Structure formats: C-alpha cells, structure tokens
Structure prediction request, 239 residues.
Amino acid sequence: MIEEKVLIDLGLSQIEAKIYLACLGLGQDTVLNIAKKAEIKRPTCYVALDNLCQKGFMIKIEKQNTTLFAAENPRIILNQYKEKIANFTELLPYFETQSNKGPKPKIRYYEGKAELLSVYLKIIHPSSEMYFFGTDIGKLMATFPTLIDDYEKKIYAEKKIYQEIISNDINAKAYLDKYGSKRPIKIMPADLPVCADVAITENKLFIVSLNNLFGVLIESEDLAKTFKNFFLLAWKSAE
Prediction:
C-alpha cells in the first residue's frame, strides 16, 4: 500500500503504519479494537501505540478506568515535520562547520593470486612513484614469477621513481647483485624481518600477506605520505 510506504518513509515501522491507518477511521478506541482493526496481536499493538505517541502520531486519552487512543490529525503531523525541518535548516551552518570535510580513505580487500596480481599490475604499476618495503623476494617470485620482469619494463620505459627495501634472507644477496645496479635496492637488518609486502605509491598503500595470499588496498594520500616517510626513515638504516 502506498499509504503505508509514505508513513514508513517518515520513520514508522510497518506495524506502526498499519496501526495509524487503522486508527484514522476508528476515532477514539481501545487497544483491543485497534489491534483487531489493524490485524495485529494485542501485546504488539500496545508497544507500537506507545511508540506512535512518542513520535507524535497518536494521542493517549485516559477515560475513567479505560485508556483510549486516537490518531493525531495528519495536518498537525505535517506541521510538526515542517517545524523539525525548519529547526534543522536553521542549524545547518553549524552542522556543516562541525562535519569532518577531509577525504575518507577507500579500503578494499583482495584474496588469492589472481586478485593480488591484478592489483599489482593494474593499480600499483601505473603509479609514478613506488616504494616497496620488506618484500620477501623468494616468496614474491615464487608466487608471482613474472611480476619483477614486468616491473623492470615499466620502470625504465616510463622513468618511474622506484625504491625497494627487501627482507634479509637467503635470496636477498642474489637479488641485490642482479638488480642493484639498475635501481635503488637495500636490505633490511637481519634482526628486523618483515613478514608482508608493502607497496607505497603517491596516494595508495597496498599491504600483502604472501603467506596467506590476501591484501588490503588503502587509498589515502595522507596515509601514503606517512608510510613513505616511514620507508625513507628505514632506508637510512638499511644496508
């Protein structure tokens, strides 16, 4: 029913809407008769009527030993809403000044080789700046065998800013010997292992668990700048 939907849009539940519509034709009446007219159980009707009274849709009338309820005039309800809107409009400038206007970060979750590789290739690669922190080279190359070669092509073809700090393990020295003359690469201290691959761009942060194959992509310029500074601080301590 369109009438019910209009009332629900005003904040009533479906049961409250049914009761209000039933009461419009009853005038003052008892909970028992209202429940019958609305085809709702009596205990439920009691609760809904109290809620409707609090919302201004019903009037409670104490008459001798009986409590009656009546639907509030629809025009009076309309005027109540107009008054609420007017009050909100008057305070709108205040609400706007209190609102946090900063950009909200976008956070997305990815799982499995295919999804993670897609993020690396389609979201991280196109960035003009890339900083990779703590990569376990052995696990990365075993999981994504073509990823490093793809990076190589894009870095030199498009002259991207690219720095790596890799985890200190049995693969680190060989990797540094192979690629260290081509781009800036450093190795973490042996006593500070890193268990995730972290990619930092101008406005994104991609954290990947190579053990469990899931990743979180955070799009936030503030966070990206902060983690870039952490990277640069770690760069000073790396070998």
